[in-house]
Specification:
This protein has 427 residues and is an alpha/beta fold. The protein has twelve helices and 18 strands. It has two domains: 245 residues, Spore Coat Polysaccharide Biosynthesis Protein SpsA, Chain A; 142 residues, Spore Coat Polysaccharide Biosynthesis Protein SpsA, Chain A (Alpha-Beta Complex), CATH 3.90.550. Strand 6 and strand 7 form a beta hairpin. The protein starts with 29 loop residues before the first strand and ends with a helix.
């Protein structure tokens, strides 16, 4: 369920560039949540850097959450310290604990080994303070810190390339969650509550920030990489460390990927043959007679073989052998297809129809495209969860576009029975 934002603006699709040059009228109250584990020197350096921020000091609160260090860190009186028991790598639980204690309208998540430059907080919170659905990721640089003379290290090429090719995530899509890094992340408190906190089922390194970012995208997030929000990581990127770690690093990455498999269903994040546990596309089909409904569902699954088809439970027995057909669905999804009545197509048009439907399901939700209507006599209305969420929050705004794709989808008439469809007779 979506709630109206307490302030601010929305934008078309992910186009945060329309907010370029704008600043909040009043500097927002920011809660900086620093997650720490056995990094005492790093934490001291990070807290000193937070004291030097250009964002007004009386508009920043700092909360350090210690993830079970043997010796809890010492922090200044002005910093709140929360200590949780050491039960594994629990960055999710630590961030959630910090958010629960926060009083700011913007949450700024920072790892203890990240040293922010003076303008970091002000740059990170600008967009979430203007557009409450904005989720910003900082510019994470790398150096050997604490050695007397810092030596800059290479930035991870995969992130550099991703931010460059997407124009700092302006051109985001459903796979862009991979470029949201929990160590340098900010969002409005309202949107954090709207999406829900980090999944505390993650108790080993990695994946919890991607899972949250994927959920945020489906909920209508506006992704932005803030190039001017620079924070320095003490040491090289994990990818560089992993080269040295060899097989151990590969196993760590495999564990992370396996943990995400049940939670993210977008193409490229799931198996190519094994059915996904999560759902990417949901198709709701209006009731019809059993033979007509069977034909319609069969056509839908030819075009969208991994979709979840939702039908009236009165037809439970008709599809009892296909687990892709359900009678209710209340989970998350990227794309919704509403089918007003069972339809048929000419056999000669089957391939073109399948391509058109799959293409519409892929494109909707990207850019500012919120809805595609496929068909003439019978219409398939394809919408994105992003557009649905935004529409519920901003009922007086129309930031999403729609597109009509003509196609000859016909009602199933009594003269074209199931046997004719299965055998291809009279087409």
């Amino acid at each position: 369920m979506t709630t109206r934002p307490p302030y601010g603006l929305t934008v078309p699709g992910n186009d945060w560039s329309v907010l370029d040059g704008l600043q909040p009228e009043v500097a927002p109250m920011v809660s900086v949540i620093v997650v720490h584990f056995e990094q005492h020197d790093d934490l001291a350096r990070t807290l000193a850097a937070l004291d030097a921020q250009t964002h007004p000091a009386d508009r920043i609160e700092i909360i350090v959450v210690d993830d079970g260090s043997v010796i809890a860190p010492r922090v200044p009186e002005s910093v709140r310290l929360i200590v949780q028991e050491d039960l594994g790598f629990r960055a999710s639980a630590a961030r959630n604990a910090g958010a629960a204690a926060a009083s700011g309208s913007v949450l700024c998540f920072l790892d203890a080994d990240m040293t922010p430059e003076p303008g970091y907080v002000a740059a990170m919170v600008r967009l979430p303070a203007l557009a409450p659905e904005a989720v910003t990721v900082g510019h994470r640089k790398h150096a050997e810190l604490g050695t007397g003379s810092a030596r800059e290290l290479p930035e991870p090429a995969w992130l550099v390339d991703a931010y460059a090719s997407s124009r700092d995530l302006l051109d985001s899509d459903e796979r862009s969650y991979r470029y949201l890094i929990g160590a340098v992340l900010a969002c409005s408190r309202w949107f954090f509550d709207e999406v829900g906190g980090f999944d505390e089922g993650f108790t080993s390194y990695g994946g919890e920030d991607w899972e949250w970012a994927h959920r945020a995208w489906l909920a209508g997030a506006i992704f932005a990489h803030v190039r001017d929000a620079v924070a320095w990581h003490n040491g090289p990127d994990a990818a560089v460390r992993d080269v040295a770690d060899g097989d151990e690093a590969l196993q760590k990455k495999n564990r992370e990927t396996l943990a995400l498999l049940p939670l993210i269903a977008v193409p490229g994040a799931t198996g190519r043959g094994i059915a996904a546990a999560a759902t990417d596309v949901v198709v709701r089909v209006a009731a019809g007679d059993p033979a007509a409904l069977y034909q319609c569902v069969d056509l839908l699954l030819q075009a969208l073989p991994t979709a979840r088809i939702v039908i009236d439970p009165v037809f439970r027995q008709l599809f009892r052998h296909d687990s892709r057909v359900a009678y209710e669905f209340d989970g998350r999804y990227r794309t919704l297809v509403e089918v007003s009545q069972p339809f048929r197509i000419r056999r000669a048009d089957a391939s073109a129809y399948a391509l058109a439907l799959a293409d519409a399901c892929t494109r909707v939700g990207r850019g500012s495209l919120g809805t595609v209507v496929l068909g003439n006599t019978v219409e398939l209305v394809i919408t994105s969860s992003r557009a649905e969420s935004r529409a519920g929050r901003w009922p007086d705004s129309e930031p999403w576009s729609s597109e009509q794709v003509p196609f000859d989808l016909s009602p199933i008439d009594p003269g074209h029975g199931l046997a004719a469809y299965l055998g291809g007779w009279g087409e």
